[in-house]
Backbone:
């Protein structure tokens, strides 16, 4: 099988300090990968670096999506290539309706001069119905006054509309109660069912979302690199015993984690 997304020996620094110290990861079409690790292990640094945040300096390594060099592209070009990032803490944009924002995003990612308003509205309505979202949601200012669960569902709606090849979901369960985690998880699963070739890298601290979104491969990150990979049973191992047994076995001291 030809790999969809390949990270090879990626090193990233922030303000002169090395955070990622040689990350290697390969995602095949349709696979769901979970990335777990303690606070400061480098998970969110990886997500931001992959999307091209200017604060994160790639010092060596390569990243390819469908065989194309991602690191040579600007963030908007990465989005057009098919890379998507769902933020851990989505920001509010007062005065900008969610529907209008999505129309602008779809236009930018698909690279079209114009987008038919009727066709867009029909597609948006269909996607919202699939995700069981109130149509009035599209008229509200993006993330303004949204609950934590609503913000994450808005991210899932963006995912459904933009139809990326590779989705990076940075802690989609962060700050959510049990019911909201289930709702967001259902949204992820629905989008993945409709876009079965899409790869997913789901970054999380906790087992609970992985009870609903079943990963094909689970990775553990520590000290800025992936130190262990396995199947879904690795999640249960982490839940019952924590990270210490793995880190001790590998001789890793994470008392001064990355970021």
Residues:
């Amino acid at each position: 099988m030809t790999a969809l997304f390949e990270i090879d020996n990626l090193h990233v620094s922030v303000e002169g300090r090395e955070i990622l110290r040689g990350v290697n990861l390969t995602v095949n079409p349709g696979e769901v990968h979970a990335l777990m690790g303690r606070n400061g292990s480098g998970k969110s640094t990886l997500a931001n670096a992959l999307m091209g945040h200017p604060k994160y300096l790639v010092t060596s390594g390569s990243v390819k999506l469908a065989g194309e060099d991602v690191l040579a592209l600007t963030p908007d070009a990465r989005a057009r290539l098919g890379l998507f990032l769902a933020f851990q803490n989505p920001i509010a944009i007062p005065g900008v309706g969610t529907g209008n924002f999505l129309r602008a995003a779809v236009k930018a990612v698909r690279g079209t001069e114009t987008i038919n308003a009727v066709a867009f509205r029909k597609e948006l309505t269909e996607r919202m119905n699939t995700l069981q979202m109130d149509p009035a949601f599209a008229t509200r200012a993006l993330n303004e006054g949204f609950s934590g669960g609503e913000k994450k569902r808005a991210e899932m709606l963006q995912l459904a509309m933009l139809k990326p090849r590779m989705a990076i979901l940075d802690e989609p369960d962060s700050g959510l109660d049990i019911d909201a985690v289930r709702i967001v998880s259902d949204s992820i699963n629905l989008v993945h069912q409709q876009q079965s070739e899409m790869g997913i890298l789901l970054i999380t601290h906790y087992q609970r979302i992985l009870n609903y979104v079943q990963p094909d491969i689970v990775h553990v990150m520590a000290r800025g690199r992936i130190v262990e990979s396995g199947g879904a049973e690795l999640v249960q191992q982490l839940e019952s015993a924590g990270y210490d047994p793995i880190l001790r076995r590998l001789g890793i001291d994470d008392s001064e984690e990355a970021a």
Observations:
- Residues 40 and 257 are 5 Å apart (CA to CA).
- The two ends are 34 Å apart (CA to CA).
